[in-house]
Amino acid sequence: MDRRDFLKQSSLIAIGGLIIPSTFLSSCRKKSLFEKINYDGKVLIIGAGAAGLYAAYILKSKGINFEILEASTNFGGRLGKLEGFANFPIDLGAQWLHGKNTILGDIIQKSNTVISLDESNSVYWFNNQLVNSIPQNTNIFDGDNLPDVSYKDYAIQKGLGTEYKYIIENIAGDQGASASRISVFGNNKDEENWSSGLDDFKFEETFFDLIDKQIASHVKDKIKFNAIVKQVDYSQTQITVTDSNNIKYYADKVIVTVPITILKSGDIQFIPALPNEKTTAFSKIGMDAGMKVFLKFSAKFFNQNIIGGSICAAYADDSIGKSKDDNILLAFIMGEQAEYLTSLGSDIAITNALLQELDAMYAGQATALFISSHVQNWTTDPFVRGAYSYSTIGMGDARNIATQSLNKKLYFAGEAMNLNGHHQTVHGAIETGYREVINILNDLKK
Amino acid sequence: MRKLLFLIIVLSKISDVIAQEFDMSLSYKYMYSNQWDKAIQTYNFSRPFITKKQPLFIHGSNASISYMFKSIKKLKHGINLSYSYYRSSAQNENLKNILNLHFINLGYAIHFDCLEEMRGIYTELIISTTSSVLFRNINGQPFLYDEKKAKAFGIGGDLNLKIGYKIKFKSQSVFLPFIALGYTPYLFSPNTEAIINQTKRLTSKNWTGILFAQIGLSFHLK
């Protein structure tokens, strides 16, 4: 065979044997998910937090009609920004980026947002003194075959005495919970699914700025503020949503993104009523009280992190990761500690209680150097009423049941509805926002 | 190229010594997998901020080597080892995202030379196990999890049917242009979706069937 014949025969084999089947397969292959969306219905999103904003952002990118109803006067949900209190902007809500392996990580790269790894050091308030380390290992909540008991009970089982009470309270507080309520088993299961990375990062600006500039900016014009939803009637083909001013909104699909506390409270009446299985699931998802108190001082007398206070189990130097360095100490208070401080009834009383504790730790320097404080109590915010969701004892499959859509009309998003182990986080909320848009589009195909 | 020629010569000499046969091949490999598509499409769907979408895993390359036990009959059999590589790269402003997918197959090949009247046509059936690893790279840096390079493994079986044509140039060297079709039932590791899209359970399944179509050239050495 000469070269010419060889080429000719090879070409024939290629055309007949490969190109034809490949072309056929390629023609069957959609280049993008939901390539053709011919949906002229309207999607109503209840809540302009991270989940609602991201769902809206996706809907907008797909050319689908939507509107966001927000009960408060601001967007962002449990994200917020305080300016003027210090010489750097302060995050009133979510503050740390928990791992970069998320959609937010990609947004941060794309937008050149400045973040830095939080490598701050901790000291412990242990047996009424500040120490750099504690005698016993408290890293006991990860592993196999963990029991479905509270952190508090498990710590006792593991021989950690009462002197560790507020160290354990801090570990539970990281999950937004009281040590007596969060499940060792449940939280460990959640963490097994965690895939966003183990490092914590802080923003040079604020977390709120990232969400505002990169996500909310695309959909702000579609947010209706002060729209406190009171009723969702999904009994007819068209869904009717009524707010506290008796204004009615009509939609074909509704994405509910309100905090789990609001769903539990029954503030929103659903017609027909939500199935018992679903309301039971809501009730099993935990969400405790939470507040952040920012204390401004004239000098920096405090350590970067102070763990184990009986009034506040976690203090942190808020200037870490910022380009300016005002002396701001953040008191990060969760669970029973937040309930106690809330019960004091005023911001002044809360501040005084914290100063008293810091005085004990730092020989009276706190009161002497104190300038002012700002209390952000998420528990008393009527549209939030707590910190973030956590897994309770005996919770079982509640989060999965809570998340399921109803009648191809009602969809549930928000951090508490995240099934990837990313609940409690902004990126977790965002994941649920676009997941529910995907679920809507999948339902439209069926 | 020089290294490749050197390798061919070395293998040729080895095969002379041990009186067995080697087939080496290089090929283009087309891949179709609904679940891989879905994972990448979800990445694209969920990121309206990227202008250049992440391409699907479609076009790849393959290198393969078969060690055939020598036989005077038309039916030969032997061991086959093959490597395939797929890449999906999208360059957006400040965000260059690359997915690298590697497959390695180890299996058993049955080679059949067709009858004289079919003028040099041969068929080959390869049954193999396949394993894969997926990496992600962002802006030139490996995608890390817990300060380690994140990787997702997969495992499956592979059935590959090859049809080719023998073209003799010299007494001992044969070129064999071929086409092949393959099917791989395949199980993802759970973190595959986490690497591509940073989610879990969104694309619902952790298994898929992959279809392959292949065109290439083998070199027969004996």
Bin the helical content of chain A: 25-40%
Number of strands of chain B: 12
Termini of chain B, distance in Å? 21 Å
CATH architecture of chain B: Beta Barrel
Number of domains of chain B: 1
The CATH homologous superfamily of the largest domain in chain A is named FAD/NAD(P)-binding domain
The assembly state of the depicted protein chains is heterodimer
Q: What is the fold named in CATH at topology level of chain B?
A: Porin
Give the CATH class of the largest domain in chain A.
Answer: Alpha Beta
SSE layout and pairing:
The complex is a heterodimer of chains A (446) and B (222).
Chain A: H1 3-28, E1 42-46, H2 50-61, E2 65-69, E3 81-82, E4 90-91, E5 96-98, H3 103-111, E6 115-117, E7 122-126, E8 129-131, H4 151-157, H5 165-174, H6 184-193, E9 200-203, H7 207-219, E10 223-224, E11 229-233, E12 239-243, E13 248-251, E14 253-256, H8 260-265, E15 269-271, H9 276-284, E16 285-287, E17 290-297, E18 305-307, E19 314-317, E20 327-334, H10 335-343, H11 347-361, H12 365-369, E21 370-377, E22 389-391, H13 398-403, E23 410-412, H14 426-445
Parallel strand pairs in A: 1-2, 1-14, 2-10, 7-18, 11-15, 14-23
Antiparallel strand pairs in A: 3-4, 5-9, 6-9, 7-8, 11-12, 12-13, 16-22, 17-20, 17-21, 18-19, 19-20
Chain B: H1 2-18, E1 21-33, H2 34-45, E2 59-69, E3 75-92, E4 95-113, E5 121-138, E6 141-142, E7 144-145, E8 148-149, E9 151-165, E10 167-168, E11 173-188, H3 191-197, E12 207-221
Antiparallel strand pairs in B: 1-2, 1-12, 2-3, 3-4, 4-5, 5-6, 5-9, 7-8, 9-11, 10-11, 11-12
